[in-house]
Input
Amino acid sequence: MIEELNHLIAWEPQPGPQYLAICCPVYEVFFGGARGGGKTDYLLGDFLNHAEIGGKYARGVIFRRTMPELDDVIRRSKEIYTVLGMDYREQAKEWVFTNGATLRLRYLDRDADADSYQGHAYSWMAFDEAGNWPSPAPIDKLRGCLRSAHRVPCRIRLTGNPGGVGHNWLKERYIDGHEPGVPFPDQLTGALRVFIPSKLSDNKILTESDPEYANRLAGAGDPWLVKAWLEGDWSGPPIGGIINPTWLRTYTAQPKIGLVDLCADLAYRVKQTADESAIGAFGMTETGEMVFLPDMKIGHLDTLASVEAILELAKRHNAQRLFVGRDMITGSIGPFLYKLMDERKVWFTVVEVAQHQDQLLRSRSFIARTQQGKILWPEGDLFRKIIHPQLVGYDGKGEQRDDIVAMAAHACMGLDSASNYTPAKPPEWKNPDQSRWDAIDRRKKPSAASAVPDLFGSRRKP
Output
């Protein structure tokens, strides 16, 4: 007598790219290329395989860029893993499998957050929607956490779409010069990588349950972006920059804003071959948009001219804060700035922004705000002739002019880290270099007690 058993299938890979990616034994797999290609499901299914191989020694982690993005992963993981009897620990955001394997769900909002994982050990690591990271730096840093003392094969998995802020580095690392589905060695480590493309049409479950999804995508952006989403086309964006022109927003009638702040990117040199300085003013709307005012100073400015421009804008707009690179304030410009602020009674708080050597790290927050439509620029010749060309031509490598990007990036980094700053008020303002200037003034102007008018007179000849 043959007994029939009813098996509950919680999840299985769809035929095609998803199945191939699940079965792929290569150390590093980049899967995806189109919207709706089943990327998150692939990661959750891939770890199921890894947990079966590694047992209680299998330790995994899935990263998303932000907490709201991570919510989708948590929701989908509950739909799959709960049926299998896995235990989800809500506070720790961690799955404990029946065989002892563990899978953590984390987000990596700031690149510096990667440092907090030093000392961790994982045998499996994944980055869902890797194109949301403008630089691979935090991802590469976390590779040091991939190790196993119990000989569990270590694996790293990434998913992503074309067209995001990480478009260029993903395309350069996994797409350019490599045949899809064919493993190739990393030039630095020799570890094998492979790109397995997936299109919307490969996700039969989605297309059959929601046949209008593709039509909705067709009306959601420029033709090149729609083609990227539907077909996984990595040839765009057409200008080749990191910043998509469709992300840029302008205004003709200035929106209502609150207090005005300043931001500046100051050039180290003033030769005609050097970068220009860019100094701007902006304010925030009630809904969180940054509105840059048309009043900008851009050009080859020496130290004194830079300070004069800052003070002029600060006085004109009653600016509350200045966001500027720390190296400029601690360098040549700081003493001049503080001295003239004191002399002219132009009061504002100087917010020193840390300088990143990696330009993409420095501009990450600015790119993200731009992509979200949270930055508004003034319509006109300034935008068309100077601002727009620099933004769409920005390559993150310093090969194109980036004065405007650096200026705005300082503002975004400052806003991200300076939420507790309060505008300075004249009675409370204190120049950090005031004691130094007081000493200089005392040397120039001897006090009445120390002055001896007759000293030289006694030596004069009659």
Summary: The chain has a mean pLDDT of 82. The longest strand covers residues 277-284. Residues 245-443 form a domain with the Nucleotidyltransferase; domain 5 fold (CATH 3.30.420.240).
